[in-house]
Amino acid sequence: MSDEPTTPPLDAMSLRLAAANALIRRRRTIKPQDMSDKPVETRLLASILENANWAPTHGMTEPWRFFVFTGDGRKRLADFCQSLYQKVTPEKEFRSDKFEKLGSLPQKASVVIAVGMKRQEIEKIAEIEEIEAVACAVHNMHLTASAIGMAAYWSTPPLVYTDEMRQWLGLGDPRDKCLGLFFLGWPESDTWPEGKRGDTLEKIVYVPK
Ligand SMILES: Cc1cc2nc3c(=O)[nH]c(=O)nc-3n(C[C@H](O)[C@H](O)[C@H](O)COP(=O)(O)O)c2cc1C
Q1: CA-to-CA separations, 46 to 24, 49, 50, 72, 130, in angstroms, rounded
Q2: Global pTM value
């Protein structure tokens, strides 16, 4: 027997785990302020949306809906968000910095995807599970974007939850919901941001056998 330290085997399972760890832990929120004006290619956008469609879904309801804004559409979205903010914000709570951001952010990202939850007619599945399924779909988009080095940001200003926003997107049933805006683009910087999380063990209880 040799005294050489043994190298852990690079078997297929270890490689797949390493790939999953890298993908999940490297995913980062990168906001439109830090996106370049380089356009997102149609084929990459299509892959991101296709992966969203592979999210888990209780009862196969597939409740996610995506409204994709590019080009001048982003300006129409920005204008609508600004006018909605003006409408729903009491005068003493109105903040001009927020108003300005609502107008500028959609135009700093190459693509903005308004995320919708379509409620099933027969409501067989609990609403919270439909929202959870849409969150999984957004996460799939974010993981895919990070895998290809793209910047992405899920934004949820309060106005996205209003009836006005839902209707403007064409989600006609009052039980449907808009769950936010997903901004997508290429990062301006070559440096990928560091992530930060607290201790995993603080969130886990290993129940005694
Ligand atoms: C459902 C949801 C809504 C979010 N909404 C906002 C938001 O409105 N504004 C914001 O700054 N970040 C928002 N975020 C992004 C978080 O700020 C971000 O995930 C967090 O800072 C951790 O960074 P990371 O995504 O790079 O790990 C949201 C994230 C989730 C899951």
Answers
A1: 21, 5, 6, 19, 23
A2: 0.95
DSSP 118: P
Question: Does any ligand 1 atom lie closer than 6 A to the CB of residue 107?
Answer: no
Q: What is the pLDDT of residues 39-94, one digit of tens each?
A: 999 999 999 999 999 999 999 999 999 999 999 999 999 999 999 999 999 999 99
Q: Report pLDDT digits (tens) over 151-203.
A: 999 999 999 999 999 999 999 999 999 999 999 999 999 999 999 999 999 99
Q: Is 120 in the pocket of ligand 1 (CB under 6 A)?
A: no
Q: Tell me the average pLDDT across 20-29.
A: 97
Task: Tell which atom from ligand 1 comes closest to the C-alpha of 197.
Answer: 27
Measured distance CA(38)–CA(32) in Å, rounded = 12
**Whether residue 195 has its Cβ less than 6 Å from ligand 1:** yes
207 C-alpha to center of ligand 1: Å?
30
Domain ranges of the chain: 29-186
User: For ligand 1, is residue 155 a contact (CB within 6 Å)?
Assistant: yes
Measured in degrees and rounded to the nearest 5, phi and psi for residue 204 equal: -125, 135
Q: Can you identify the CATH homologous superfamily of domain 29-186?
A: NADH Oxidase (3.40.109.10)
